[in-house]
Amino acid sequence: MTDLTYRRILLKLSGESLAGPDGFGIDPLQAEAIAQRVKDVYQMGVEVAIVIGAGNLWRGKQGLDRGMDRATADYMGMLATVMNAMALMDALERMGVYTRVQSAIEMRAVAEPYIRRRAIRHLEKKRVVIFGAGTGNPFFSTDTAAALRAIEIDADVLIKATKVDGVYDADPKKNPAAKKFDHLSYIDVLNLRLEVMDSTAISLCMDNTLPILVVNLWDPQALEKALHGQKVGTLVSA
Questions:
Q1: Distance CA 208, CA 195 (A)
Q2: What is the C-alpha to C-alpha distance for residues 103 and 53, in angstroms, rounded to an integer?
Q3: Where are the domains of the chain?
Q4: pLDDT digits over 189-212, tens only?
Q5: Could you tell me which CATH class the domain 8-237 is placed in?
Q6: Neighbours of 111 (CB within 10 A)
Q7: Strands 180-181 and 183-185, how do they pair?
Q8: Cα pseudo-dihedral 112, 117, 123, 124, rounded to 10
Q9: The pTM is what?
Q10: Measured CA distances, 237 to 123, 202, 211 (Å)
C-alpha cells in the first residue's frame, strides 16, 4: 500500500455500466463484473466510495419531453440510483466485500441516511460506501453528487469510469482521427465543452482542487495502474 498514489477514491459509475446488452435494466452479470473491479481495488488497500447514475433505469429527458415537471423527473432518477446501489451492494457482499449504502433521501428500511462523519468512519473501517439518491435535491446530476461527496469525504481523486480510455476532442468511435488528451485543466474542459462531467461538477472540483481521472473501467489494468501513479486515461486538474 505504500506505493499507492491515491488512498481514498470516489468512483463515479454510469447507470449503464449495470445494464445488459440492450442498455436497460440491471444485469446481474454486469453487476458482478463491476463488483469484481471494485474488489480488485479494495484488496489493494484503497478506501473506495461510489456514486452510480440511473441511466439504465430512468432518463429524465424522456419525461421532460412529454411535459413532466423537472423536479419530479429528477426525484425519480434519484430513487433509481438507490436501486442500482443496492444491486451493486449485493454483488459486492456476495464477493466478501463489506459494503454500506447511504441515501441522501431517507429510506431507512433499505439504506442508511447520508451522514458525512459516518461515511468516513465506514471507509476507515475498510467498508465500501455507495452513495445513493444523488445530492437529495432536484436540478443536480449524479456527476455533481459525485464531486460533492468526494470533497466531503476528503477523497484524493474522483475517478470517472467510462467505456473509453480517456477524454477525446471528438467521439473516437465515430472519428478515428480524434485526439486523446493526457491532461486537461478544469478551464480547458469548460472552455472546450468537453463531456467529461457537467459544468457544475467541474466547477466544484476546480474550486476545491479535486483532481478528476477519466479511465476505461473495462480495461482490467487501468484502475490498478492509475492508483499506482502510472499514466493512464486523462487527468483533469489545476
A1: 20
A2: 13
A3: 8-237
A4: 999 999 889 999 999 999 999 999
A5: alpha beta
A6: 22
A7: unpaired
A8: -140
A9: 0.94
A10: 24, 10, 5
